[in-house]
Amino acid sequence: MRPLRAAMDRMSIPLRRIRQSFTMRAQRTESLCGQLWWRQIGDARIGGFFGFITDARGWEHLEPAPVLPEAVVFAFVRPLGHPLHRRLVAAKGSLFEKVARQSRYEGVPFDLYRDRAEVLVRHRSMRGRPDEILVLTACDFLMTSMRAYWASDFFEEIRKVRPAKRKAKS
Prior knowledge:
Radius of gyration: 16 Å
CATH class: Alpha Beta
Structural class: alpha+beta
Order of helices and strands: HHEEEEHHEEHH
Number of helices: 6
Number of strands: 6
CATH architecture: 2-Layer Sandwich
Largest sheet: 6 strands, antiparallel
């Protein structure tokens, strides 16, 4: 766990840009170690995670399957099935679809999972690397992954998201 924490410490300055606009907290659970960031919109959350999968349970749907420790960057809309999820993920030409397309163009492809709360996912195994190399490799992976977010103005687009207007009852 020490090299994983060292990698996250090293990412503190690049993540400062996200901290300025979103709620952020360290996430250290049985399955994740990293930084969780989000924006609350009504009873839904839009956000993401930068860090590591430390327990592969619940991540079996990823291709290739996670080999721990696994560096991961994902974006989410929670809860699954919320109108915001349908608008930002399920709709044709949605924000998350655009980010997935831009990520392929940038050469850092994210997988798009329309039927999950963790919608955009990019991951890579760090197994077998010496600690000092793991820290550098993981930071490079995380920073490269962020390039697709920046290129698609993902953070700015999330800041613009507003709750759906309620229709007046007749």
